[in-house]
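Supplementary Data S3. Sequence and structure tokens for construct A.
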Amino acid sequence: MDSISTITTTEPGLIVVFISNGPGELTTWVKPLAEDLHRSLSLRPYAPNALISLRLVLVPCPNATGNEKEVATSWKLFEKVTAAKDFWKVLINPKKFGYWPKEGIVVFLGGDQFWSVLLAARLKYKNITYSEWITRWPFWNDRIAAMSNQVKLALPARLKKRCTVVGDLMADLKNNAKNKHPLPPGGWVALLPGSKKAKLCVGIPFFLELADQLSDLLPTCHFLLPIAATTNIKEFQEFSNQEKNPIANEYKSGIKEIICPKGNSKWKKLITTGETEIQLIEEQPAHSALSQCDLALTTIGANTAELGALGVPMIVILSLIHISEPTRPERIGDG
């Protein structure tokens, strides 16, 4: 019994620490890479007695929603998830946030690249930066994983040997998503209003009205709306409520009701005040359904990269009407 107890309480000998920030990076980079590592290696928490632990440290980001820790924890891919608000505390006193072995690797997957360099230096771990477009602190990176050869070519000559071109982390989305769950016949339009309050307070009323108008022009068109991991249907209802979101007063459309799945349907259905039906996709990621759409109407963000990887034609919409309303999103849902 003593030997069993000793085995189950053994601390990891090495830690892989992912550094990331907002919802887009979490769903497009962090989650797929974490799942792939678990398939390739024996890691905690999947293997409780493994010698390698996989952790996630979130870093400060003005574009974060505040729900990132809860979302990442729900995936059960990490032995520990540290909130962005605790990042400086981790730097000052790491021991308060768990056991840190002598050996470890910090992997940058979103945010400011300096945060991963700083944490790696504090913990005396190796540092790997995934560089999508540019490596900002190449001399402080032990290894650089580049999206393209252009990133490598931009490095100083003596640092090129540190860089390996690994490609786009989202490049395999289309192959992995194909035809897992075929959509019913017809033309499908995906609506992606965003995941952050600043976008949703404008995006929800706007996209609902857009759906109503498109439905009038194209009666046979079907709509689906993937719900980002950091938001939910309740927030959608609040953003479409004219009392809670003053911007909704500028639009005629709203949410009439939410219908739970019936029969063979697996998705909830949003009915607008204009009687337009919008299928709500709550499972994450929604790549299978998105890959089958004929068109996506989206705001700016990481979702545009996802759509590009999936090969879905898109129209990127940027509202210029309400950009002078910076404080209103913060009041939505407070009460």
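Construct B, processed identically:
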Amino acid sequence: MRILVTGSIAYDLLLTYDGSFPAAIDPAHLEELSVAFVTPHFARHHGGTGANIAWNLRLMNQDPLLVGTVGRDGGEYLALLRERGIPTDYVETLEKHVTSTAIVATDDEEHQITFYHPGADSAGSWPDLNEERESLAYAIISPRDVRVKLQALQWCQQYRVPYVFDPGQQVMAYGEDELRRAVTGSAGVIANAYEWGLLAEKMQASTDDVLEMTPFLVVTHGEQGLTVYKRAGKAKIAGKAETIVIPACTPDRLVNPTGAGDALRAGFITGLAANWTLEQAGRLGAAMGSFAVECEGTLMDSLDLNELLGR
């Protein structure tokens, strides 16, 4: 069975700042904000939420079905994906646009500031996947153009493909009703702590409220691990969530945290597709995330599965 992945396919420009972003910003003068950060380190890599997740799934011997959009400069990226065994049949190329680009700056406290140009993804479309329906175990709907993302959610709901909703940093681009429909139709929701805060505020919903709409909620906390909230069992107090706290795995070294969240998502949905428990799936996700921070870009060159399972 395959895992449907839709999300951005992008080039990443990674910058590193030797200092703290918050320390350089005076809260008393935000209305006059004008700052510049000298970043001694620069690197260009392949990235994007959809491509990152699909790549990590392939490293775990999964068979991802990637849906996304690239521009006229995306041919080399598509060739790289195919070389690694990731089919690109449902990745469209739009010659009038460039491929999405993310500029990600990270300080020495792991704060990040991202600028994102959607490029071709802003003009993308949802393909006809009807022939693929029977081969799909799960889907993960990750950040990309909101219009196409809503089409993906509708398709999964129509054809009853269980999906994990990953709102990413796009929460404010949705209306409250759109968010409620996305969450209500999902098999679960995954977000980092900041995104969950925005989601809860936009929906005016607590953890227990969300668990009346979807079976589970995963909130990631970076180096602090992740928390899984799930609907309470019949023997538990009605309306109260069961909470599973999963610690982070310690990496051998920390190079760059960019892409760790996508690796975690790939591990988590791999566990779901294998019918593991939420705790087991969360632990696999934590382990995948720890390997991702050990490399410079978001795409690990290789992965030892025995080391992954051991960690």
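The mean pLDDT is 93. The radius of gyration is 19 Å.
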